[in-house]
TrEMBL record:
<dbReference type="Pfam" id="PF00560">
    <property type="entry name" value="LRR_1"/>
</dbReference>
<feature type="signal peptide">
    <location>
        <begin position="1"/>
        <end position="25"/>
    </location>
</feature>
<protein>
    <recommendedName>
        <fullName>Protein kinase domain-containing protein</fullName>
    </recommendedName>
</protein>
<keyword id="KW-1133">Transmembrane helix</keyword>
<dbReference type="Pfam" id="PF13855">
    <property type="entry name" value="LRR_8"/>
</dbReference>
<keyword id="KW-0812">Transmembrane</keyword>
<dbReference type="GO" id="GO:0006952">
    <property type="term" value="P:defense response"/>
</dbReference>
<feature type="transmembrane region" description="Helical">
    <location>
        <begin position="394"/>
        <end position="416"/>
    </location>
</feature>
<keyword id="KW-0677">Repeat</keyword>
<dbReference type="InterPro" id="IPR001611">
    <property type="entry name" value="Leu-rich_rpt"/>
</dbReference>
<keyword id="KW-0675">Receptor</keyword>
<dbReference type="GO" id="GO:0005524">
    <property type="term" value="F:ATP binding"/>
</dbReference>
<keyword id="KW-0472">Membrane</keyword>
<dbReference type="InterPro" id="IPR051824">
    <property type="entry name" value="LRR_Rcpt-Like_S/T_Kinase"/>
</dbReference>
<keyword id="KW-0732">Signal</keyword>
<dbReference type="InterPro" id="IPR001245">
    <property type="entry name" value="Ser-Thr/Tyr_kinase_cat_dom"/>
</dbReference>
<dbReference type="GO" id="GO:0009791">
    <property type="term" value="P:post-embryonic development"/>
</dbReference>
Amino acid sequence: MAKPVDKLHLLVFIILSIIVSAPHSNQLQLFQYQTLVRIQQLLNYPSVSSSFNTTTVTDFCNIEPTPSLTLVCYEDNLTQLHIAGDNNNNINGGLAHNFSTDTFFSTLGSLSSLKVLSLVSLGLWGPLPGSIAHSSSLEILNLSSNYLSGSIPVQISSLRNLQTLILDDNKFTGAVPSELSLLQVLSVLSLKNNSLSGFLPVSLTGLQSLRVVSLSANHLSGEIPDLRNLKNLRVFDVQDNYFGPRFPRLHKKMVTLVLRNNRFQFGINPDELRSYNQLQKLDISLNRFVGPFIPSLLSLPSITYLDIHGNKLTGLLLQNMSCNPQLAFVDLSSNLLTGYLPSCLQVEAKTRLVLYSKNCLSNEEQEQHPSNFCQNEALAVKVLPHKQKNKSSYASSVVGGTVGGIAVVGAVLLVVKKVYNKNNNKVETTSTRFILENVSTINTVKLLSDARYISETMKMGASLPAYRTFTVDELKEATDCFDSSSFMCDASHGQIYKGKLTDGTLVAIRSLKMSKKSSPHMYTYHIELISKLRHTNLVSALGHCLDFSLDDPSISIIYLIFEYAPNETLRSSISGPGYKLTWVQRIAAAIAIVKGVQFLHTGIVPGVFSNNLKITDVLLDENFHVKINSYNLPLLAEARGKGSAEVSSPAKKTSVLARTEQDDKSDVYDIGIILIEIIVGRPITSENVVVLVKDLLQVNIGTDEARKSIVDPAVMNECSDESLKRMMELCLRCLSNEPKDRPSVEDTLWNLQFATQIQGLKENNQEAL
C-alpha cells in the first residue's frame, strides 16, 4: 500500500494536537473537533505521535493557512476546508483498503456550515456518492485531481447554493447530468479531463449565471445547444471532444472560446464572430472547418490569441489586411490559404509568434505547398456511407434556401449527383455515397486564373505609393496649371482634373472648396480618414494638398489626389457592345465589389457607409481589376452640392460617420441591384425596373428551365444551375424591403464565393468527363 503524504501527515498532526489540547466547553466546537478526527481516520493518517510537542494554541480556526491546508471559520463555525495533497499520489493515495466515499462524504455533510470544500490531489477513489447532497450549504466544491469514478450523481443538483463545481482530472464516466440545470446560481462548471460521454444537455441553457464552462478532454459528442441566451458566459472550452458539426451559437460577450480538436465542420458564418468584441482567445484548430477564412478575426478589438491550424479553410490573404496590435499568437498553419501574409503579421515583435506553414502562401520563410496543392485540396471532397435520412435532410435544406453549413453541403450534393446522372447513371464505386463534409466554399485561385484577377490585384495593391502631402506646384505641373484640357468633369463633390505626375503616374485630382470658418486643423480628422482608403478594390487616395482661394480669402481649397481609373464600367462589360464578361468573371467582379464595401465598413475607423453604389461607378481595366470609383467620404459629403462647406468636429456624430443597421444594409441593397444586371445582362435604370425584375426573379427561381429563361443569353450555357440559383437567391435577399432581412456584407461575400465554388465543381467535372 502506498505511504501517506508526509507533508499532509504533519498538517494533520497539527490539527489533531490542537484538538487534543482544545477546550471542549463549547458543544459546537467539540462536534467540529470530532468531525475532523473522523476525517483524519477515514483518510488513514496515523495517530498523534507521543513525541510531538503539542502547542498551546486551542483555537483551530486560527491555524495559519498553508498551500496544503486552510481552515476558515466564521463565528466559530467552520465555513471553508481546503486540503491539497501531492500531485504524485498513487491511485489509493494512502487510503485504507476499505475506504468508503459514502462514509467520507456523509461525515463531511455533518459540517452544516461548510460553504467551501476543496479536496485536491488526495487520491480519493470510488464513486462520488449521493451523500454529497448532505453538504447542502456548499457554494464551492472542488474535488479535482483525484480518482473518483462512475457517474456524476444527480443528487449534486440538491446543492442549490452551489456557485462553483470543479471535478477536473478524475475518472468520471456517463453523461453530464441534465439535473445540473437546477443549480440556478452556478457560475463555474469545470468537468475537464474525465471520460464523460453523450450529448451536452439542452437544459444547461437555463443556467443564466454561468460564466465559465470547461469540458475539455472528455468523450462528449453531438451538437452544442444554442447558448446565446447565456449572457454572462465568458469562457467556453470544449477542447478534445467529439462535438460538431456546426459552429456553436454563443453570446457575443465571449472572452475565451476553445473548440480545438473536435469534429466541427462546414463553413463559419462571419456574423457569428465579428460581433465578439470582447473575444481575447479563439482556438478552432484541428477540426474540419471549410470555406473562407474570415480576415476580420485578425482585427477583433480584443483578440490576442488566434489558432485556426489544421482545418481546410481557404481564401486569399492580402498584405493590407488589418491586425489587432495586441495580437500575440497567430497560427494559420495547415490550411489552404493563398496570397501573401498580411504585413501586420510580418512585423518583427518579441511578443508575437506567427505560424503559417503548410499553406500555399507566397511567403516562403515557413514551408509552403505548391499552389496547385491548395487548388486540388479545396475541390476535393470526402464521402461517407450513404444514409437515407441525410439525403432527405440535406435536400430540404437546399430547397429552403438556408444559409449555412447544411445548405452548403446540400447544394454541392445536388450538383455532384446531377453530374453523375448525366453519365447515363453510371457511377464509380461512390454510387451509394453522398458528400457530407470537407466542402470548400471558395477556390478563387483556380476559377479566376483566366482573368488573371488575383495575382494582378495583389501586385496592384502592393504597388500603391505611400500616401503623402502634395504641393500646389506639383498639381499645377501635373495639370498644366489646371488647363481646360485636363478638366474631366464638374461632379457634385467638386471639379475633377486628370493629371500626370513627374514619375509618369496618372492621377485624378478632386478640388473641394471649404469654408474657412473652421481652421485647416479641423480638416485633419477627415484627411486622416481619407489617407486610410487604400484597397485593391477601391480607387485609392494617394495624397492631399491644402490651398486657399485667390478670389475669396474666406474659402479654403482642398485637393484630394486619387488613382486614375479607366472609364470602362462593369455595366459596359456586361451589356455593352464589346467583350462580355463570362459568368465566372461576373461573380469575380461581384466578389471584388463586396470586398471593397467590406473594407469601407470595417477596414477603417470609423467605417464609411451608405455609399450609394452604382454599377456605373464600378470600373474595370484591361486586366479585369475591379475598383469602386465613388463612395461616401465625409469630407465629400460636406462639400456635396455646395459652393463651400464647414467641416464638422470629429466628435460630432453625423449621418455619415454614425453606423446603423440601415447604413450597413443600404449598401447591401445597392449590391443587390448590381447583381440584377450581372444576372440578366440588361441595364437597370430606375427603381421601377428593379421592382419588376425582382418579381421576375421570384417567379422564375423555382426550376432550372425557368431560371435559364431570364439569365443573360451570353452566359446562359456556361453557368451551372445551382450557381445561378444561388446568385438569384442572394440577389432577392439583398433586395429585401426590410433592412433586417438583408444579409450582412460578410454573408453576401460568403454566398458569392460559394456560387463560384459550385460553378467550379461543374467545370471540374466536365473536364473529368
